[in-house]
């Protein structure tokens, strides 16, 4: 499944992903049925734990959707457990140092490419697909640019051989730039441009979170050149659907 999405990204196809913050396999499956290419399971912000994440992986895969986890940190042993549980991609938050990032990446690949341990789990069908999984599986690796230090090394990060897309977290980045939630400042727009240029130079897909579930805004992000776009979140979409109720 990861290779299918990787091929789209390399071909320049726009990949649209959902974003899940609630620990609900049912909500995840409902979102996966809406046409998203992948669904990000946010384990940094929200109540989703490892057991819940594993159930979510299974529910979205039933709908042909690819599960990706936003990690709470670049902690390799959590990443390895999630890979054993069948996640197809990892979003790595707040990447600012290429050496630290490279060390983390090593934990995501089997020897000789990396140092990931081998085990029998859901990812390799409890050993039934061990050989094929060991030989062929390569998780999607998506570092997140969320600070000015990350922007400063965006070119080096995008050039890393394991990187499939470079993802901008707009709220964290705007906060680090001194204007939390303000996406129209000159310094913020400059940071976006630097990151986009880094992706183009490296031939990698630029990504961003279009948090407001507005289709015109989504089209605008596509026109700006983004190819890995997270669209809305489960909770924001629900609130937007019902927020006019009190005005009736």
Give structural notes:
- This protein has helices spanning 2-10, 25-32, 50-61, 76-84, 98-106, 130-136, 148-152, 154-158, 170-176, 186-202, 215-224, 234-242, and strands spanning 15-20, 38-42, 66-70, 89-92, 140-145, 165-168, 205-210, 228-231.
- With 248 residues, the protein is α/β, with parallel strands linked by helices.
- The chain has one domain: Phosphoenolpyruvate-binding domains (TIM Barrel, Alpha-Beta Barrel).
- An eight-stranded parallel beta barrel has the order 1-2-3-4-5-6-7-8, surrounded by six helices.
- α4 links the parallel β3 (66-70) and β4.
- α2 (25-32) packs parallel to α3.
- The longest helix is centred in the C-terminal third of the chain and has 17 residues, at 186-202.
- The protein starts with a helix and ends in a 6-residue tail after the last helix.
Task: Please give the structural blueprint.
Elements (H helix, E strand, L loop, with lengths): L1 H9 L4 E6 L4 H8 L5 E5 L7 H12 L4 E5 L5 H9 L4 E4 L5 H9 L23 H7 L3 E6 L2 H5 L1 H5 L6 E4 L1 H7 L9 H17 L2 E6 L4 H10 L3 E4 L2 H9 L6
Helix pairs in contact: 2-3
Task: For this entry, give a set of tags.
12 helices; alpha/beta; TIM Barrel; 16% strand; eight-stranded parallel beta barrel
Report the sheet-strand fraction.
15-25%
Number of helices in the DSSP assignment: 12
- End-to-end Cα distance, whole Å, is 45 Å
- Rounded mean pLDDT is 97
Strand order of the largest sheet: 1-2-3-4-5-6-7-8
Q: What's the number of domains?
A: 1
Number of strands: 8
Q: Write the CATH homologous superfamily.
A: Phosphoenolpyruvate-binding domains
Predict the CATH topology. TIM Barrel
Can you identify the CATH class?
Alpha Beta
Return residue spans where pLDDT drops below 50 for at least 5 consecutive residues. none
Series of H and E elements: HEHEHEHEHHEHHEHHEHEH
| Helix proportion range | 40-55%
Please identify the structural class as seen in this structure.
Answer: alpha/beta
